[in-house]
Amino acid sequence: MAAAMMNLSSSIQSGLFSSLKPSSFFNFKTTHFKNRFFLPQSHFIFSKRSMLCTCSSNNSNFQTGAKAEPYVVTTPLYYVNAPPHMGSAYTTIAADAIARFQRLLGKRVIFVTGTDEHGEKIATAAAAQGSSPSEHCDVISQAYKMLWKDLNIAYDKFIRTTEPKHEAIVKEFYSRVLANDDIYRDDYEGLYCVNCEEYKDEKELLENNCCPTHLKPCVHRREDNYFFALSKYQKSLEETLAKNPDFVQPSYRLNEVQSWIKSGLRDFSISRASVDWGIPVPNDNKQTIYVWFDALLGYLSALLEENEQPSLQSAVSSGWPVSLHLIGKDILRFHAVYWPAMLMSAGLTLPKMVFGHGFLTKDGMKMGKSLGNTIEPNELVHKFGPDAVRYFFLREVEFGKDGDYSEERFINIVNAHLANTIGNLLNRTLGLLKKNCQSTLVVDSTIAAEEQDFKDTVEKLVEQAHIHYKNLSLSSACEAVLEIGNAGNLYMDKHQPWSLFKQGGAATEAAAKDLVIILEAMRIIAIALSPVTPSLCRRIYAQLGYSDDQFNNLNWSETKWGGLKGGQVMAQPKPVFTRIEQIKETENGGEAAKKVVKKKEKKPQVQGVVEA
């Protein structure tokens, strides 16, 4: 790398630039980067998408027609009995990446998230904190919003199930199902998991009647409740899954669901007589609606516009059905069995897909507060930044399967991929361009890549990334984009433009073209990886001389080779991603634990931070 950074004599620099002066190729004016450059309008095609907000995005302008079908993606509505954990963050990061990709395709995206705020566990958690359930919900719901902001989650709708509009939707839905003779009252006695808020069959429990998910004993309960006639929809659900196997993904989750249905469906309780913190049953104020018959309706109530009179018809016309329900595998039964049956009863269209992803472990072990090995998402994002967190979990966890986190692996992956492969490639290329071409491209990227196989390699990898994103293979999409960076580094090492610049003449012209080729690859990476690492890609795009508005209005079609034009002025080289270093500290002459140096550290030990 040192050769790439060597100083060239002023005579070589001036000789090169006089021979490759942009004005000799193009009849337009170039200015300093901060004032932007001016090109004929034909050099750029801007999509007419609205600006994307980091916390929530108003993308109503994305649709290409007044009645264009939206792409609706949802996370679960997270239960507010406790602050957000890494599992919740993982689901939401994945949903955000999928939503951002769909926006790049020009879709009108509605990304729904929110909080589930009723139930026994919440009332108990609030009492333990000495607060009312309402106060408790306010605090935890706000904690989710703050974490989503820190993780650069661009959601469109955030629904709280304590909102009046949600209660109205739940009551109307309940009344519809009741009118369809699918709700009845009965006594029920059985083993109840407080954490699942569900009665369990003894055959699915572990030793000592422990819940297989929460590993805690279920309690014996007898209640007089209202029930939903789930068993009535067994045949309909079987037929739905047989005709539409993509309804539940990945395929091995579909097998689980089919197995549950095949074993025989039992009607389930949809109310509680012993829980005050909930929505009252419309025809019986002594009972409240059970969590799942309440929370699942949040996917509908979230679609309502502000200040709109709440009704199922309004919600449906605003974007139903959902294109993708993204959930953890622990709540698959509720989304893939209970929910579609409920919708059938109410006469509503089913979602297009339910995708159940796996669990996260830490250092190969299941996480738990008792083990002291939980991953705190707030701590992680404040320590390493949102791009590092988003990239690691989407790149290193095969989407759908369980995945493991270790800090050492996290640091190694992030440094190797983001700081070295991508960050260092951009930085050294811009450094060479500044020294030898006054930070100005000498020719169009299309012309520079003539008779070069590199362009074909990049185009193939972009197409692979596109397919992987569409198939929700997020790890593979990241891998395909990273391969563009790897190919760029190999190209640089093979062509060694720093050596060519020293030779002058045709070699100098070839070197200048090499830099254009690499920077065009970086431009494409900035678009193709933006669903996963939006802040990093924004910085890359800025280094290439583009504005925030241009980044916000990107479209996937702009991954096509040929975006950079001769005469464009690049930014001054500046690291886009700071390498994370672990510095060994000593204590009383002995070695102590490694200390992770945070990004942007400006204290005296800054020599431990390597920038790329």
Overview of the molecule:
- The chain is an alpha/beta fold and 612 residues long.
- It has a domain at 411-569: Isoleucyl-tRNA Synthetase, Domain 1 (Orthogonal Bundle), CATH 1.10.730.10.
- It has 21 helices and 18 strands.
- A six-stranded parallel sheet has the order 3-2-1-12-13-7, with helices on both faces. Strands 5-4-6-8 form a four-stranded antiparallel sheet.
- α11 (332-346) links the parallel β12 and β13 (354-357).
- The longest helix has 31 residues, at 407-437.
- It starts with 9 loop residues before the first helix and ends in a 15-residue tail after the last strand.
Please describe the topology of this protein.
Blueprint: H1 10-19, E1 71-79, H2 86-104, E2 109-116, H3 120-128, H4 133-150, E3 157-160, H5 164-179, E4 183-193, E5 198-200, E6 219-228, H6 234-243, E7 248-249, H7 251-262, E8 268-269, E9 271-272, E10 280-281, E11 284-289, H8 291-295, H9 298-301, H10 312-317, E12 324-328, H11 332-346, E13 354-357, E14 360-362, E15 365-366, H12 377-384, H13 386-396, E16 403-405, H14 407-437, H15 445-448, H16 453-470, H17 474-495, H18 497-503, H19 505-528, H20 534-543, H21 548-552, E17 581-587, E18 590-597
Parallel strand pairs: 1-2, 1-12, 2-3, 7-13, 12-13, 14-16
Antiparallel strand pairs: 4-5, 4-6, 6-8, 9-11, 10-11, 14-15, 17-18
- Give the helix level as a range of percent: 40-55%
Radius of gyration: 28 Å
Give the class from helix and strand content and strand pairing. alpha/beta
How many helical elements?
A: 21
CATH topology type of the domain at 411-569: Isoleucyl-tRNA Synthetase, Domain 1
Query: Largest beta sheet: what is the strand line-up?
Result: 3-2-1-12-13-7
Most strands sheet: 6 strands, parallel
Under the CATH scheme, the architecture of the domain at 411-569 is Orthogonal Bundle
Provide the CATH superfamily of the domain at 411-569. Answer: Isoleucyl-tRNA Synthetase, Domain 1
- Which spans of ≥5 residues are poorly predicted at pLDDT below 50? 1-66, 599-612
Proportion of beta-strand residues = 5-15%
Query: For the record, what CATH class of the domain at 411-569 applies?
Result: Mainly Alpha
Give the number of DSSP strands: 18
Q: Summarize model confidence as the mean pLDDT.
A: 86
The rough form would be described as elongated
Tell me the span between the first and last alpha carbons. 11 Å
